Amino acid sequence: MTFDLYTQTAVDHFTRPRNVGRIDDADGVGRVDDRATDNLITIYVKLHGQRIAAARFRTLGCSACIAASSVATELVVGRPLGRAMRIDARAILAALGGLPADKVHCAELAARALSEALAGAKTLLSS
Fold first, then answer.
1. Contact yes or no for 114/30 (Cβ under 8 A)
2. Domain extents in the chain
3. What's 3-126's CATH class?
4. Strands 51-60 and 39-48
5. Between the N and C ends of the chain, which has fewer C-beta atoms within 10 Å?
6. Radius of gyration over every alpha carbon of the chain, rounded to an integer in angstroms
């Protein structure tokens, strides 16, 4: 792998990912299995009131997907659910300082998994 294609932030997140693991009593779980690229991302969120108290991820995939998942969890922790739901692939890419063009889909996959997890948490709050 050539690290010079990635920003220092992206390299840091895939060499030292944050929030790896699962939350057994998660309020929302999002899972994206992209068979075309052999990437599987699962994101778990736990609420405290209307805020994201914790977020964890498990990613089986390339380094860019690991970095995107790591950043996605960092972006949501502590945010109100409504604001967290606005985090998309562009926000993940911006937080990473970008990804190579052939890896942009990794931010999109992480954003989809995050969106599913947050939607599940929102549904739980509504019931």
1. yes
2. 3-126
3. alpha beta
4. antiparallel
5. C
6. 14
CA angle, 92 then 42 then 91, to 5°: 10
Residue type, 42: T
Q: Alpha helix locations (H) across 26-100? A: 63-76, 81-84, 89-96
Q: Per this entry, what is the length of the chain?
A: 127
> What residue type is 74 in one-letter code?
E
Query: Token pair 């998942």 is at which residue?
Result: 69
- Residue-wise DSSP of 48-66: ETTEEEEEEEEEES-HHHH
C-alpha to C-alpha distance for 62 and 127, rounded to whole angstroms: 37
Q: What is the pLDDT along the chain (127 residues), one digit of tens a residue?
A: 456 789 999 999 999 999 999 999 999 999 999 999 999 999 999 999 999 999 999 999 999 999 999 999 999 999 999 999 999 999 999 999 999 999 999 999 999 999 999 999 988 777 6
